Amino acid sequence: MAQSVLRLAREVLRLRLTMLMLNEGIKAKAFRVPIHLALGHESIAVAVAAMMQEGDQLACSHRNLHYNLARGATYAQVRDEFALMPTGLAGGRAGSMNLSNPGAGIAYTSSILGNNLAVATGLALAKKVKGETGLTIVVTGDGAMEEGTLYESLQMYATYRLPAMIIVENNGWSLATRIEERRCPIRLDQMAAALGADYVCLSGNDPEAYLAKLTTAREAALADSRAVIVEVMLSTLGDWRMPTPEFPDGKHINYHAGGTPSVCLDNGPCVRAEADDPVHVLACVHGPARVDALAAEIAGTLEARA
Ligand SMILES: Cc1ncc(C[n+]2csc(CCOP(=O)(O)OP(=O)(O)O)c2C)c(N)n1
Ligand SMILES: [Mg+2]
Questions:
Q1: For residue range 167-217, what is the model confidence (pLDDT) as tens digits?
Q2: Rounded Cα–Cα distance for residues 259 and 193 (Å)
Q3: Is residue 185 part of a domain?
Q4: CB under 8 Å to 44, separation ≥6 — which residues?
Q5: Is residue 243, in this structure, part of any structural domain at all?
């Protein structure tokens, strides 16, 4: 396995194992804030983190854990942050939904949907005014892209000729509502074309392929001072319960936040033997035995669960 590919595979596994350990903590009520795990989102976060260069800035949303981890946060740092301890990544002051880490390039994070799109536009404009280099990257979900700030920021990027990358993590859900239940389909490729932006669609959860495509898109955005929308098709793995009049104890739906009861660390790093699980994809590419050995080695370096 080439070193660069091995590094990406190790990172996908580190993110997965860290989130599985945090899931056990959530189930044990160890934390003081609502937490949105990102099981299934590992490949895009690892590829974005590897794509980023000096001066690049990332603006995240409520589901930001995978980017914080991919940009170097450790299990102990996020565990302590979620327990609001001074030893946490942000000194215990940010919690989960607003967790940023400017020193690692995560300039801003907001729990207000669409807010990071507007702030990222300001970050990109500030770079231009100050003559600074680097790309502004913003991550949003398929729900948050329904906010007007997506359209408004694309307009601003085109008007002021600002380089930017807008990553839409499309898991098909906004809280308990699927896209087809809440709105018409939106063709992001056509929206991008109408506003002078590029469009790239990523699927398949291969971090190496993602990194290659992101790197090309980054260079084009910087060379031509324009925006690129990167739509990533993925699944948020796990399950969630929502109380309804018919199901007062909670109806099982797609995972949104909190602990995911059906996912257990003892079952190994793979959640689903399907292509929407980045760890399953790694096992298909590199062999299950190799991935299990790597996972065991990484788990040994993370803090013991107790
Ligand atoms: C302005 C605003 N409206 C509503 C909410 C409540 N809310 C929090 S997360 C969420 C769903 C977000 O869906 P999406 O952007 O697709 O991200 P996902 O959770 O699927 O990763 C909603 C509606 C909010 N945080 N901010
Ligand atoms: Mg969504």
A1: 999 999 999 999 999 999 999 999 999 999 999 999 999 999 999 999 999
A2: 39
A3: yes
A4: 66, 167, 169, 202, 210, 232, 234
A5: no
Question: Is residue 138 within 8 Å of 117, Cβ to Cβ?
Answer: yes
The amino acid at residue 297 is E
| Strand partners of residue 200 | 230
Per residue in 93-148, pLDDT (tens digit) is 999 999 999 999 999 999 999 999 999 999 999 999 999 999 999 999 999 999 99
Domain count, the chain: 1
Could you give the residue ranges of the DSSP H alpha helices within 173-271? 179-182, 188-194, 207-224
CATH code assigned at 15: 3.40.50.970
* Ligand 1 pocket mutation, candidates 36, 65, 113, criterion most atoms within 8 A of CB: 113
**pLDDT digits 0-9 by tens, 266-280:** 999 999 999 999 999
Q: How many CB atoms lie within 10 A of CB 27?
A: 15
What is the pTM assigned to this prediction? 0.97
Ligand (nearest to CA of 61) = 1
Q: Is 96 in the pocket of ligand 1 (CB under 6 A)?
A: no
* Nearest atom (ligand 1) to Cα of 147: 1
Domain interval for residue 150: 3-238+252-301
Q: Are 184 and 247 in contact (CB under 8 A)?
A: no
- Is 287 a domain residue? yes
Ligand 1 atom 3: the closest Cα is on which residue? 113
**Is the CB–ligand 1 distance for residue 206 below 6 Å?**
no
Residue 256 located in a structural domain: yes
Max Cα distance, the chain (Å): 58
- Centre of ligand 2 to C-alpha 4, Å, is 30
CA 205 – CA 16 distance, rounded (Å): 13
